Amino acid sequence: MASDSVYVERFTPTERAVHWVHATAFLALLATGLVLYVPRLSILVGRRPLLKDLHVYTAVAWIAALTLVVVLGDRRRLRQTLRELEEFDNDDLMWLRRYPVPQGRFNAGQKVNAALTAAFAVLFAVSGSLLWLGERDHRFQFASTILLHDWLTYISVVLLVGHLYLAVIYPATRHSLRGMTTGAVRRDWAKRHHPKWVPEQRQ
Ligand code: HEM
Ligand code: HEM
Predict the structure, then answer these.
(1) Rounded to the nearest whole angstrom, what is the distance from the C-alpha of residue 30 to the centroid of ligand 1?
(2) What pLDDT, on a 0 to 100 scale, did the predictor assign at position 200?
(3) pLDDT of residue 201
(4) Residue 167 alpha carbon to ligand 2 centre in Å
(5) What CA–CA distance (Å, rounded) separates 156 from 122?
(6) Could you read off the pLDDT of 165-186 as tens digits, one per residue?
């Protein structure tokens, strides 16, 4: 069929579920976290204990929902995606030095973004859990925990702005949003941006 050759599958339903569960929870944590952090917003919204509860319950729901997607989803394809993200070859290094070398399903920038996202998720969860525990037991109180949580937030906001610009605004890359919503992208777009990946697709 013509439409089969025009589009190629980019993300499986499980990959999309992982992305959107993570993105939704992250944005909710960012919004509630910022209200806790910015004094003007804190005063405007008030009800600090409720916001704190919302923040922590969202964190619990985030981890539970991600676990559920992984347990119920297509783990074989997720493992394959992980391998693709971990593989860092010479072309990736050259690409980071701004040479226009061909890229696979994920370019080197996306691989770095995925690694940072995963590392930050763990660090957010560890520092957030310590903040929660520290309020209940002084043995878990460390001066640097809140600093770490705050710095992770600052860097995440910078990464998120770049990510959203590429996914929604920048003309050359915004077609990728179709892949993360419907699962498929145009073959000619994929060939232009990810030439080492497209030939692996069935014709
Ligand atoms: C498992 C994940 C997380 C847990 C368990 C968690 C937990 C917490 C806790 C317990 C607090 C302390 C609230 C207070 O005492 O005022 C807090 C504050 C905060 N969180 Fe999270 N959090 C998590 C993820 C995130 C994420 C992903 C973001 C941002 C994208 C974030 C941003 C913030 C901010 C900005 C504050 C306020 C810090 C301050 O007052 O200096 N948190 N979090
Ligand atoms: C409404 C908000 C968001 C939109 C519209 C969006 C859009 C996208 C799109 C279109 C892709 C696929 C790019 C491709 O074709 O390869 C993608 C991938 C990805 N997204 Fe998002 N995203 C959002 C929020 C987030 C958030 C909040 C995070 C993490 C905190 C995140 C982390 C990632 C990661 C790690 C990837 C794979 C690597 C990459 O493409 O950089 N996204 N996103």
Answers:
(1) 8
(2) 56
(3) 53
(4) 7
(5) 13
(6) 999 999 999 999 999 999 999 9
